[in-house]
Amino acid sequence: MSISWFYRAGKYEQGKITKLGYDCETDNKILLIRAYIPYRMNILHLVRDGVSNPKKALQIIRFEMEIALRKANQYYHTAVGNGDGNRIMDRDWDTCILLDACRYDYFQQESPYDNFKLSKEVSVGTDSKEFIKTVFSDREFHDTVYVTGNPFVSLLERDTFHDIVIDDTWDVGNSQATPTQVTEAALKAHEEYPNKRIIVHYMQPHFPVHHPDFTHINEYITYRKSQHWPVGISRAELRDGYRANLNYVLSHVTELIDDISGKAVITSDHGEMLGERAAPIPVRIYNHFEDLYVSELLDVPWLEVEGENRRNIHAEPPVESIDTQESDEITNRLEALGYR
Fold it and tell me: Residue 221: left (phi > 0), alpha (psi -120 to 50), or beta?
């Protein structure tokens, strides 16, 4: 048995759109969005769980309802669309540092680079998969080396870049590549490829929290179907953990920038929702999702750090020995990040 929910989102041309099992139909130019409650909640199981653990059963119902409303919002934003965002590969830089899930407003408050120009840009995507596919797919960047701890790089063809440096020492205890590991790999790449542009993709401030004084926050984050909720802590505490995680990765970024030559930029693939209400359905959302075009996910920083000794960049054929991750390993990493 499933529960359906309908929302009249606006006027569009007649037609029918189907995506990922969710129906989107138009009737008399009124878009109707049906968001099925995910998981096809089994009423008997809910009754059984409710008797044994009423609090848990109510929590599951709440989570499922919020997921359904969030997906309805995604459907609305898919219909409305997203404009052309920041195309980082068309900008001028020697090193591009990507902070995963970094919001512009938090970065503006915490940036250690007061003497350099900071601007707000609009990302091309609202999660890593959408960003990576939009920016890099079906293009060749043989003058660029991509250093990354993000498993979504597996979406790209092997010859997209001159080389792809994948962090192979995944921090199993914290389910994510640490800033230390990515910094070390980035410094090595700068030495090995002195005439290439370098992209350095840190996984922070994306949860889980790595700051040693705030790792307890991770114990109070519940993951369910690619979304997380704070359970047992307040939104303010969750946001404090996010801010601490940002400061933690920024300390490693400054270390990296101090040791490399050329012009560096700091930006992000997308932002993060920390319990803000989405639109048009005002449900609170945590995490980040594709096709949810709200300012908390779209607004990202663009900071240019002018350095000396610009690198002499030129393209060369891709390195043949690019290592690719096994599909099981990719799946495990995505699950660790709460994506599956």
Answer: beta
CA atoms of 29 and 232, how far apart (whole Å) = 44
HSE, CB side, 13 Å, CA atoms: give it for residue 162.
Answer: 18
Note the pTM of the prediction, 2 decimals: 0.79
Task: Judge whether 265 and 305 are in contact, CB under 8 Å.
Answer: yes
- Which residues, 6+ apart, have CB-to-CB distance to 255 below 8 Å? 183
3-state secondary structure of 49: helix
Q: Kindly tell me if the per-residue pLDDT of 175 is higher than 50.
A: yes
**Architecture category of domain 88-336 in CATH:** 3-Layer(aba) Sandwich (3.40)
Using DSSP, state whether 197 is helix, strand or coil. Answer: strand
Burial class (CB in 10 A: 0-12, 13-18, 19+), 314: exposed
Short-list 140, 107, 143, 115, CA closest to 302 = 107
Distances in Å between the alpha carbon of 16 and those of 19, 25, 63, 76, 164?
A: 10, 5, 28, 14, 40
The alpha-carbon radius of gyration of the chain (Å, integer) is 21
Q: Is 309 left (phi over 0), alpha (psi -120 to 50) or beta?
A: left
Looking from the CA of 285 toward its CB, the CA atoms found within 13 Å total 29
pLDDT digits (tens, 9 = 90+) for 193-215: 999 999 999 999 999 999 999 99
* Beta strand pairing call for 273-277 and 284-287: antiparallel
For 13-29, write each residue's pLDDT tens digit.
233 333 333 333 333 33
Domain segments of the chain as ranges: 6-80, 88-336
